Amino acid sequence: MTRTHGSWTGGTLTARSFLKPHHVARAMFHPAWIPESVDPSVEQLKRIRIIAGAVASLGVYTFVEGGFAFTELLENALTASAVLLFLTPLTVGVMLFVWRRTGTVRRLREPLLNSLKLLLLFIGSVVATVVLLQLANSMGGPAILPIGFAALWMVGFVGAGAFRISGNFFGTAVVHRCLPPLLATVTTWLMALPDLITGDLHGLSLTMGIVFILGAPMTVTAIALLEMGRLKRRYGIRLGTHPAAQPPIPGPPPPVPPTAPHVPPQGNPYAPHAPAPGYSYPPPMPPQGHPYAPHTPPPGHPYAPPNPYGHGNPYHPGPGAS
């Protein structure tokens, strides 16, 4: 369990944000107190669960009478809101009764109240959107412009909010990491039960009706079980264990400090410098003089060859020679 703190939106909303309803929906329906996903693979499974449930659910309305049943979609939105208002507290209450064996419920009061606020905010937004759309359809004249604009803004706001809610399920992950997939499974099956009991196939054939009616709950259930299975295997998080008794979730790895690239010394490469430790330069050589200057060997040089003819020119005639 993660203790909630801070503001609801985290200071991300500005006046310009209201020009884009999906930005407002992200700030309102995914508050700052909702914990981040513990694993990228679990987050990916959550997104697949959201997309699969939405495609399977909206597919029914696409095939009804060969077009998009907008009126039926509004009616089902109100029905889904009533189901959420009843089912979500009931499911969480059952889990609180199960968790009493391993911990106290008093510690969960603050996150539970925040999740309840998020639930009421979403249901109120859905009801307000339906009312505005009905007013826009029934009114005429200049008054339809502001009401129609407000209705369209609320449609985008609720649509983006529904996507956020399908992932975090009213922020119940702050209570227990396994609550969002559990609530998603229970809700989709309860939404499909009336059609299964009454046999209402929404104007589809028997095969297509079964595919679309059972497609959403079966897909969401399979992905939710896989999601909870990974939480159990990798992090030891079990649905039947009190949140306070769960093993601590490892935090993200610490950031690696940036290292500057190696730069060689920038001094004069020809300047004399001290040798490296443990190394000494050889002694300097004595001066050798100019290599091209005429050299006279010193007296008594051992390598000077003696002249066998004495001194002077041996071919010069001596005295008395004729």
UniProtKB/TrEMBL annotation:
Q: Where are the transmembrane segments?
A: 50-71, 77-98, 118-137, 143-162, 174-192, 204-226
Ranges of biased composition (kind: Low complexity): 309-322
Q: Where are the stretches annotated Disordered?
A: 241-322
| Top-level lineage group | Bacteria
Biased composition regions of type Pro residues, renumbered to the chain: 245-308
Alphabetized UniProt keyword annotations: Membrane, Transmembrane, Transmembrane helix
**Protein name (database record):** Integral membrane protein
Organism of provenance: Streptomyces viridiviolaceus
